[in-house]
């Protein structure tokens, strides 16, 4: 069945009528400043995931008990992921109840306190508590930044602006490698590495005090005057009227729905089940196709490939991080020109090829090779190709899609749930990669990841809609069509049962 979307004022149909009113990525300095400010949360996210690999080497030197205990080492690394899961799960509710701005300020405070605790930790157990706090801040920020940016962005540049947050994540990872290198000869090495992460949080806190609340959140909370004041800084007067009409229509539809949304409501509504399945599935596949395996263990992978020099391994890892950031810049351009779905599919096809190259290089490599050799360089080529394909597509697409596929009332809670799926998947991969590589062999491990990437291609084709250039209401219409096959409202479970009883519902999703 062909999907037909009825355009409304403020929609992409309006922009088709007046193409000269399309906004470019750099077309509004106000929205760009808001995006960069919110994106500092992504910088914190990326820095924290990257810095611990270098810091742990020096933590083991300072605390003998850590050196003697693999469990403590794993706990120091993974406690931030545990905190991020909790932060992401609760961050959706914080966003919906208190707003995007206050959620960001809260995340900054928690992160900064965690950074201070880590830097001053007298023993590994206090350090672990600091890692938990930092993780909580990162988790809330990982939910808030994409939603905040998306809700303030014009639809025609929303993908690129949300992807800027992903650029900040990859930039944070690159920065962490630079900081690790800079502090290797400084007394209190790891304390500086971990403590300096509080600086961006303090800077963001100060800047966010001057930033507005999300105009969509304000409008839905009946603070229309404040919302319009923000919108006047984003749109010109001719388009402003249409955007206000569009928000008013969305508000009326929201008022017809249940007032308070719970986690269970996501699974009671067929539209929301479809939307959440697509969003959470993308987040899971982002991790299970191996990106943080590559980022966490890139020095180890390089050494596995036969390059046993620590300096060379760290240098190649720095290059990998730089390529990841550069690839995200490419993604910012293509995500609003090629679309989310095409970008994800082309990215995954390249990832599959790269992982197969990885696998072949490790299968063929001789254990006697000490200087890398042909297959060692083939593994490094696979590493470079992997980042080159992953960074522009599967890096930004899951975060962008999750910021735009949920209706206003569900956006915070579903964004938090899908981010939690991402963090749980991240933890599973980080905790199992080396063990699986040891048991099955590195070549077989990368072949398994390639198989998962094939499943991801099928998933994107079947379950993920194209949202390029669509307004939020047009995206909602896609899920209505897929769920019910006609332009019905967002039904509750009881509404669904009634419709089913009347034989009006045609099962299955459509595209």
From TrEMBL:
Topology with respect to the bilayer: Multi-pass membrane protein
CDD domains in the record: MFS_HMIT_like (cd17360)
Source species, domain of life: Eukaryota
One MF term in the entry's GO annotations: transmembrane transporter activity
UniProt keyword Transport present: yes
Domain Major facilitator superfamily (MFS) profile: residue ranges: 34-468
Cellular compartments per GO CC: membrane
Listed transmembrane segments: 30-59, 71-93, 105-122, 128-149, 161-180, 192-211, 274-297, 312-336, 343-363, 375-401, 413-437, 443-464
Main localization, broad class: membrane
Gene Ontology annotations of biological process type: myo-inositol transport; polyol transmembrane transport
Keywords linked to the UniProt accession: Membrane, Transmembrane, Transmembrane helix, Transport
Region (Disordered): 491-511
Location in or out of the cell: Membrane
InterPro entries recorded: MFS_dom (IPR020846), MFS_sugar_transport-like (IPR005828), MFS_trans_sf (IPR036259), Myo-inositol_Transporter (IPR050814), Sugar/inositol_transpt (IPR003663), Sugar_transporter_CS (IPR005829)
Pfam families: Sugar_tr
Family label: Belongs to the major facilitator superfamily. Sugar transporter (TC 2.A.1.1) family.
NCBIfam families xref list: SP
Protein name: Major facilitator superfamily (MFS) profile domain-containing protein
């Amino acid at each position: 069945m062909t999907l037909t979307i009825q355009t409304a004022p403020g929609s992409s149909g309006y922009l088709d009528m007046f193409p000269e009113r399309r906004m470019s990525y750099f077309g509004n300095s106000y929205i760009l400043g808001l995006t960069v400010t919110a994106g500092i949360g992504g910088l914190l996210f990326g820095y924290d995931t990257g810095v611990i690999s270098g810091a742990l080497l020096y933590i083991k030197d300072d605390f003998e008990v850590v050196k003697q205990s693999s469990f403590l080492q794993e706990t120091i690394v993974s406690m931030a992921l545990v905190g991020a899961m909790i932060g992401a799960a609760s961050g959706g509710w914080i966003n919906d109840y208190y707003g995007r701005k206050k959620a960001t300020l809260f995340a900054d405070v928690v992160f900064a306190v965690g950074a201070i605790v880590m830097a001053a930790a007298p023993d590994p157990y206090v350090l672990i508590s600091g890692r938990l706090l930092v993780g909580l801040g990162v988790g809330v920020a990982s939910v808030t930044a994409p939603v905040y940016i998306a809700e303030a962005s014009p639809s025609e540049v929303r993908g690129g602006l949300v992807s800027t947050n992903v650029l900040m994540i990859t930039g944070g990872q690159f920065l962490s490698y630079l900081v690790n290198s800079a502090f290797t000869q400084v007394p209190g090495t790891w304390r500086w590495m971990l403590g300096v992460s509080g600086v961006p949080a303090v800077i963001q806190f100060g800047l966010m005090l001057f930033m507005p609340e999300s105009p969509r959140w304000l409008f839905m909370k009946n603070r229309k005057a404040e919302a319009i004041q923000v919108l006047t800084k984003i749109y010109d007067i001719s388009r402003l009227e249409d955007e206000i009409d569009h928000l008013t229509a969305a508000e009326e539809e929201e008022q017809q729905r249940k007032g308070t949304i719970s986690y269970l409501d996501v699974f009671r509504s067929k539209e929301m089940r479809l939307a959440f399945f697509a969003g959470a599935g993308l987040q899971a596949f982002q991790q299970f196709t191996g990106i943080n395996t590559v980022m966490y263990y890139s020095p180890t992978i390089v050494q596995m490939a036969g390059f046993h020099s620590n300096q060379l391994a760290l240098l190649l890892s720095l290059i990998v991080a730089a390529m990841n950031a550069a690839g995200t810049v490419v993604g910012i351009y293509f995500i609003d020109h090629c679309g989310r779905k095409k970008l994800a599919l082309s990215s995954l096809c390249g990832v599959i090829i790269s992982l197969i190259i990885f696998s072949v290089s490790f299968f063929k490599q001789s254990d006697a090779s000490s200087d890398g050799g042909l297959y060692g360089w083939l593994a490094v080529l696979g590493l470079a190709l992997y980042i080159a394909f992953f960074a522009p597509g599967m890096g930004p697409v899951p975060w962008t899609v999750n910021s735009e596929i949920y209706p206003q009332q569900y956006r915070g809670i579903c964004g938090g749930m899908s981010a939690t799926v991402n963090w749980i998947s991240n933890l599973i991969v980080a905790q199992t990669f080396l063990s699986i590589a040891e048991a099955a062999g590195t070549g077989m491990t990368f072949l398994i990841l390639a198989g998962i990437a094939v499943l991801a291609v099928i998933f994107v084709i079947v379950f993920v809609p194209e949202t390029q250039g669509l307004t939020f209401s047009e995206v909602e219409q896609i899920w209505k069509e897929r769920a019910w096959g006609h332009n019905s409202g967002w039904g509750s479970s009881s509404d669904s049962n009634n419709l089913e009883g009347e034989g009006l519902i045609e099962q299955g999703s459509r595209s």
